[in-house]
Amino acid sequence: MKTDSITVTAGNSDEDVVMVMKQKKFPWWIFLLLLPLLLLIPVGNDIKIQFIDQASIPVSLSPAKVVYPEVSTFGGKTLQTVEETTTQEGQFEVLGVKVPLWYKLFGGMRDSLFATCGNGCYMLNNAGYKYRDFSPSEYKQLQLGAVTSTITLKVVDADDNQPLPDSDIQIVKIVGGGQSSETTKSNVAGNFDIADMPSCGQVQVVASRDGYMNDTLEASLFDISNMQPNERTLHLMPLKGTVKVIVRNLETKTLLPDATIRLDINGTAQQTLKTNTNGVGVGTFDSLRVTSSLKFTASKNGYADTTLEGYTVAQFMNLDEEKRTMYLRPLTRSLVFINTDGNNPLEGVENEIYENFNDVVYSNSKGEFVVTGITEGKPFSIKAIKAGYASNDTKVKHKTIAELQTQASRTIPLTKKETPKPPTPPNNSKQDDLKGESGDLRVNLQWYCKTDLDLHVIDPCGNEIYFSRRKATCKGGTGTLDLDANALFGTTSRPQENIYWLKPTQGIYTIKVVCYKWRERSQNPISFNISIVDKNGRVDKRGTIAPGQTVKVCDHKVID
User: Fold this and answer.
1) Beta-carbon count within 10 A of 79 CB
2) Residue pLDDT, tens place only, 459-494
3) Please, which pLDDT band fits residue 114 given cuts at 50, 70 and 90?
4) DSSP secondary structure string, 400-459?
5) Strand order in the sheet with 507-517
6) Helix, strand, coil proportions of the chain in percent (round to 5)?
7) CA–CA distances in Å: residue 507 to residues 460, 499, 513, 541, 556
8) Binning pLDDT at 50, 70 and 90, where does residue 428 land?
């Protein structure tokens, strides 16, 4: 016990009075007894959270939940749950959470609380945090992760609803004001995925494929996830076109109406039509997909079939007319014919084949000749010709193969004929049978068929008078051709050509006959007559000429 002394002096006394006081001390051990009770005192602790998304933007007005342990005075723990909606700033508060002082001082704050928040686009699920991490004066930011999902879509043909594999897909993702783009392709089933995207994000999908119109789907991933399967499908409308095929005869290049054209699309027969019968020979196919592979087969009675392939509709539409043309080769056969003289084969007969084609065939020693390249159903004619025989152009006239099936129908007889002799011209000075002008010298040519013979006379000066030089003068004497027969028009079977001189020059005149155009079928060679008339009278000289020949008849001398 502590003792204190106090001295007191009296006013009227010389003596001091000493007072002794004793002070009682507080027992310090009481604090030791009170300390445990102080640790049981409850203290307040606030839980302040701000929820943010991946872009650090507050997750406002979203449902949130915090689960934390409530601690009793002696350490008992009870889990408490607080559920509220975040504020506009994404904040969530649990205020005045009471814990014993000892809990806060001695490490109990290491216990975890669990926070949950989500708005369908972002989510924080049961994230555990320590009590001690939460400041009483600041908001702890908790970042939510994106809520992603994978949605499968499909691309089909709008016409037949069949899957379209290998289609080009462009996906534009729009999330929280940000935008990203990616591309992919549909698989063999026509499917493709939109993966790892927040459910609340917007998506724009464009599907495209060569030969089709694009299709677009725009929606949120959440809306797409709630669609029916047929609503998750992009339908590509096939582009279509018209193709025209032209059919012609391979040999004549003429158009073939009424030909049959069969169209195979992608290896499968689809349509058959006839080329129109108005003469243009064109077949038209409408509403064909531009990506389809085409094969045309053209046929017609009497022709071999032909095909045209290797193009899509789009390629075929850009071809020129020649490449869109199918040529049908006429079916042909060969037939053996016989030329006869009575019952005997006739060799060397010239057989002209015409109308269907043009050719000349000669019979062999057996009287046989072969006509090749006869088109089925096409009529043709044969004219048989041999010198000394009457021609036969009636036995095979406008006949088809079907009408010439027997050998008798293919036997062409010829009958001999007598070649008429030209009349003997009078050998005197009379000129009544001669045409054209006369003079002191006259040279006249006569023959008796429609072949074109030309009279040529070379005067003493070397001038040659004939159809290309009808007049020439030699030393004052002028010769003139005044008749030129059977040249182009107005042929006759009794032609004459005539050259005359009023005053001929003395000297030698060379007379020739030229076969210019052979037209005779019944005789070879043919006969002609030259009449020379001067002041001494008339002289006739006969001769013959064959195709392509030039015959010198004589030299005639003129003297005074």
Assistant:
1) 10
2) 999 999 999 999 999 998 999 999 999 887 678 888
3) confident
4) -GGG--STGGGEEE-EE-PPPPPPPPP-SS--TT--S---SEEEEEEESSSSEEEEEEE-
5) 464-465, 452-458, 507-517, 550-558
6) 10, 55, 35
7) 5, 16, 20, 20, 8
8) very low
Amino acid symbol at 414:
L
pLDDT band at 273 (very low <50, low <70, confident <90, very high): confident
DSSP string, 276-315: -TTTT-EEEEEEEETT-EEEEEEE-TTB--EEEEEEEHHH
| Token pair of 431 as six digits | 């000129």
Beta strands (DSSP E) in 86-214 are 91-100, 112-118, 122-130, 140-143, 145-146, 148-157, 168-175, 178-185, 191-198, 202-208
Q: HSE-up of 494 (CA within 13 Å, CB side)?
A: 7
Residue 442 β-bridge partners: 500, 533
Residue 131: phi and psi, rounded to 5, are -55, -40
Residue 259 in contact with residue 208, Cβ under 8 Å? Answer: no
Interval 545-558 mean pLDDT:
92
Is residue 49 within 8 A of residue 83, CB to CB? The reply is no
Cβ–Cβ < 8 Å for 399, 405? no
**Which structure tokens are listed for 310?**
């290797």
- What are 495-530's pLDDT values in tens digits? 999 999 999 999 999 999 999 988 887 778 889 999
The confidence score (pLDDT) of residue 426 equals 46
CA 402, 406, 408, 411 torsion: positive or negative? positive
Give the pair of three-digit tokens for residue 298. Answer: 């053209």
Rounded mean pLDDT, 162-187: 88
Long-range pairs, 427-433, Cβ under 8 A, ≥24: 427/538, 427/539, 427/540, 428/537, 428/538, 429/533, 429/537, 429/538, 430/538, 431/531, 431/533, 431/538
Q: Mention every residue, 6+ apart, whose C-beta is less than 8 A from residue 319.
A: 311
pLDDT in tens, 390-401: 999 999 999 988
pLDDT band at 8 (very low <50, low <70, confident <90, very high): low
Query: H or E element: which one contains 37?
Result: helix 29-39
* Per-residue model confidence as pLDDT tens digits over 212-256: 899 999 988 778 878 887 888 999 998 888 888 999 988 888 888
Instruction: Kindly report whether the peptide bond that precedes residue 525 is cis, defined as omega within 30 degrees of 0.
Output: yes
Amino acid of residue 79: L
- Three-class SS of 474-503: ECCEEEEEEECCCCCCCCCCCCEEEEEECC
For tokens 């409850």, name the residue.
42
Residue type, 380: F
